[in-house]
Amino acid sequence: MPKSYADLLREARAQVREVTPSEVDLLVDSPSPPVIVDVREASEWEQGHIPNALHISKSYIEQDCENAVPDRDAPIVLYCAGGVRSLFAAQTLQQLGYTDVASMSGGFQQWKTQGLPWKMPAALSPDQKQRYSRHLLIPEVGIDGQAKLLDSKVLLIGAGGLGSPSALYLAAAGVGTIGIVDFDVVDLSNLQRQIIHTNDRIGERKVESARLSIEALNPDVTVVGHEEMLVADNVERIIAGYDVILDGTDTFETRYLLNDAAVAANIPVVHASVFRFEGQLTVFKPYEGPCYRCLYPTPPPPELAPGCSVAGVLGVVPGIMGMLQANEVLKLLLGIGDTLAGRLLLFDALDASFTELRLRRDPNCPVCSDAAVEARRAGRPIDAATAGADAPFVLGSLGGVGNPPPEARA
Amino acid sequence: MSTVWIPQVLRATVGGAKQVEVAGSTVGEIVRALAERHPSLGGQLLTPDGDLNRFVNVYVDGQDVRYLQGLDTPVGAGGDVRILPAMAGG
Questions:
Q1: What are B32-57's pLDDT values in tens digits?
Q2: What is the 3-state secondary structure (H, E, C) of chain A?
Q3: Which residues of chain A does B62 touch, with a Cβ-Cβ cutoff of 8 Å?
Q4: Of A65, A291, A308, A368, catalytic
Q5: What is this structure's pTM?
């Protein structure tokens, strides 16, 4: 005998535990909060949802839940608009082997009526939804992550071998503001690897050439040009307000200068450098991992560290390292994965091998140690020379205290 | 015997070899043996007083010897010793 809707609903109620919105609100703040899944349609979700809920439409629940919630024993609370669709969706999850599934009675309507917190999801235009659709499909990015990227500011130091590929990928990814520091012009010898520039822009300023390529790729991105050499007098001003800095310079002076200012301003730096067939990559996350001076307290003599213009470099090496930098930048912006903070990744193009070394914070670092932070706060930054860091520039010229590290505030 | 990995920038000092097998039970013994065999490499790694140059990073099995016991850091048989150069190229 065929069943009616009322029969199906009765069966679902018998099989699925129901929780009230108030109970869910308490569970959210408990030590082991449930995964909250909104099973309504996308058009309903866009009108507002419970904070931190996942969105999996009921029509996709069989396909998508395994990926979104791999643990079959995880506590899950489903909700819809009124509490019916979530009951049926919960039955489906039970069939898939989920052991702890509940449905929120009264649904989102009841939740809102009770004055419980809810939020509007990030909004993307129809064009943006299409442009970033492959990001939106990844649960770790999704619409919120994409909105975060569009709201992010990344500063590239140099639009050269490392900056070119990273700028293109960050622009394609929808990083909303890309600052570029470069005072150079495009040279024919750059084009073997600096793929953001083109033959017909030889002689043009690199910042403007990069801007043209980025705008042609993604009009969502605002390019901020800083056509000046990074020096002690301007570094604090230039880096202020950026979320992440990508270091793609080719001199030790700039790398140390940037490090000192970025540590003081508490901005993470994604670092890479290249030599012929080799590359190095790490993330300097102030006060959480080592800084550039912890890794290299002193620059080598010039004959031991020739730049690309002297020693040469296989064009793809900065390409590979630059893209790995872009990957670290995206992870930092999205707050996902494990960054390379505290790890140095070495790449050897001839072997096609990667090697990882463990990096440590130097407790006596003249820039990122507790004593250095204290000294900066007191307005007496440690001088590199007296600290024994015989690097060719002056730490003390950086006046600002920047953002103190979280633990220093605590 | 330990394997010492020579970075590209220093390979000319060891006749182009990417890795060199060296005997020694500490970083100091290994570096001094290397310096004896390849004096121009020794000049880059060690100060006249026999200390590691401040711009030279040596890693044993993935760890910086500055945070272990420096030149006294023990190296086991088959240890992986890596000389890490600072590079500026971008």
A1: 999 999 999 998 899 999 999 888 89
A2: CCCCHHHHHHHHHHHCEEECHHHHHHHHCCCCCCEEEECCCHHHHCCCECCCCEECCHHHHHHHHHHHCCCCCCCEEEECCCCCHHHHHHHHHHHCCCCCEEEECCHHHHHHHCCCCCECCCCCCHHHHHHCHHHHCCCCCHHHHHHHHHCCEEEEECCCCCHHHHHHHHHHHCCCEEEEECCCECCHHHCCCCCCCCHHHCCCEHHHHHHHHHHHHCCCCEEEEECCCCCCCCHHHHHCCCCEEEECCCCHHHHHHHHHHHHHHCCCEEEEEEEECEEEEEEECCCCCCCHHHHCCCCCCHHHCCCHHHHCECCHHHHHHHHHHHHHHHHHHHCCCCCCECEEEEEECCCCEEEEEECCCCCCCCCCCHHHHHHHHCCCCCCCCCCCCCCCCCHHHCCCCCCCCHHHHC
A3: 356-358
A4: A308
A5: 0.81
